[in-house]
Batch of 2 targets.
Target 1
Amino acid sequence: MSKTGLKFKILDAVYLAIMILPIVFGIVLQVLTKPVAEGINITGARVYFTIPMPIQNFPITESQVNSLLVLIVILGFCLYITHGMTQHISLKRQHLAELIIEKVDGLVKENMGEYFKGFSPFIIAILALSAFSSLITLFGLYPPTSDINIVGGWAVLVFFLITYYKMKCGPVQYLKGLAEPVPLLAPINLISEFATPVSMAFRHYGNVLSGTVISVLLGSALAGLSSMVLGSLPGFLADIPLFQVGIPAVLSIYFDVFSGCLQAFIFAMLTMMYVSGGFPAEEYEKRKARKKIKNK
Amino acid sequence: MELAIGIILGCCALGAGLAMIAGIGPGIGEGNAVAKACEAIARQPESKGSVTTTMLMGCAIAETTGLYALVIAILLIFVAPNLLVNILVNTLKSL
């Protein structure tokens, strides 16, 4: 396929549309459904509608819709940067794709070891999902990561992974591991087992949510300040948002961009550490060697 | 009735403020971690990358207790007042 053919360009446009249209859709949905609020207004995710279910009604919230939009955006992004890949690099975007893959592969190999080489797609998925979910605030949309249900879901997934790899040598070995160093401490070990996903979910959600709360508080404080300074002026001069221009943007760089990306990185790092740390590598190798001898 | 609701709201706010005292601990801990990381980088500038990564991880874990306090404070401010006022109104109705 030629790099400049019409077909190539049309596909490019389609992928870009997959990348951009969900955000536009989210903004339109937000504009259409969000009630106009006065003053400070910190609420959770709005519920669009509820599906009646036998046990409990199933609410479709803003965070679910937005995380689906983020998934579609990531899909479009991946399709776009891998489009037209060749063995010899011919497009600039291929550098980006290779850079991402190489970095994450290196990170996974460094932190998890050779056995977990196949983990890098999962790690990159967590990284991208978390980072894009936090960065969606830049478009004024509700970040799915500031909802504990979304982050809690990821943490439960990670918990299952950790437990699976701890049970690689059989459940007996796992129970033995709980009773270390003395069997008396088994309840505490059990609690710490369940505290892992809770702390991971709270860490991510708390960081993103605190950023949102502080931004809203600062915005309202600056509005009060500028109305105090300019309030006595006549006419439209009183309504000039003197201090609201620019200052919140500086905070947004820290709370939305830096903190969001850092939390994504930390979530992925903790996933890697817990999964590879829980895996009893020596015991597994021993058993594998024993099995080999038996089979011979 | 108004007095009771006022007490509920005031105590929720006070409790949230008291809960955030826990922010002191992570502050001191992260300060120590960053100070040590600075020393380590000053001593061995070539190990900057791994030291920074480890420091960020440590900071994230040290931050957890502060974030527990933050979650409790958020619950106290945004969730607890409604819940408690509802309970109060219901009990007064049933009396």
Target 2
Amino acid sequence: MQVSFKTRNKTLIAEIEGELDHHTSVEIKDKIDKEINRKQYKNLILDFTKLTFMDSSGVGVIIGRYKNIQKRNGKMLIVNPNPQVNRIITISGVHKIVPVFSDMQGALEEI
Amino acid sequence: MHVNNEMKVEFLSKSSNESFARVAVAAFVSQMDPTVEELADIKTAVSEAVTNSIIHGYENTMGYVVVTCRIIGDTVEIIVEDKGKGIENIELARQPLYTSRPELERSGMGFTVMETFMDEVEVESEVNKGTRVRMIKKINGSR
């Protein structure tokens, strides 16, 4: 598991590579929160292009970050989840509060 | 029912073993020639059950989680067992969004995911004795 960051104005783009389960969620949360607090980003895009697996622990991670971004009156989006990850996002209803985009261009235009 | 094949793995309740459990079950089930989607469903359901044993059953103390996997015709049966603290109210635990550990940012979707991705999910639990989750899925496969 690896998290890498890119920025676009007040938006932090976090690319998560590998698997998001209970074991890796602790480190992923920690890295994203530190980066957001360090530069006071307003918006967050989770780039799931290289995320190969996610279980319901990922839902906790997404909703927790969403709450933080909401406090900043920012927007949060998800980009390019694979079909397995997308099913978890849909079943849990996460897509109703954090919109899912199939490509980064569309997400950046939305923000 | 005639059991065609069976495997059992036992491991410590360390979170790093969650991925091991998923991969071990997926590797065993591969002999049934499942589709990519069926295999992803099984890995996700196993991940949820094993994570429950680690977080809730043993509450991050050390104990053993046992995963048994049986192939019976075109059906796979997966049993995830722990000897942890058990579930007081199974009906409540199975409700979507319910979590006994909100401080951990848990979504409370574990059982809902298992029920969605598998055909049958049975939960047996006794307080201070442990929990046994039995899941069944028919593999239609890519053939």
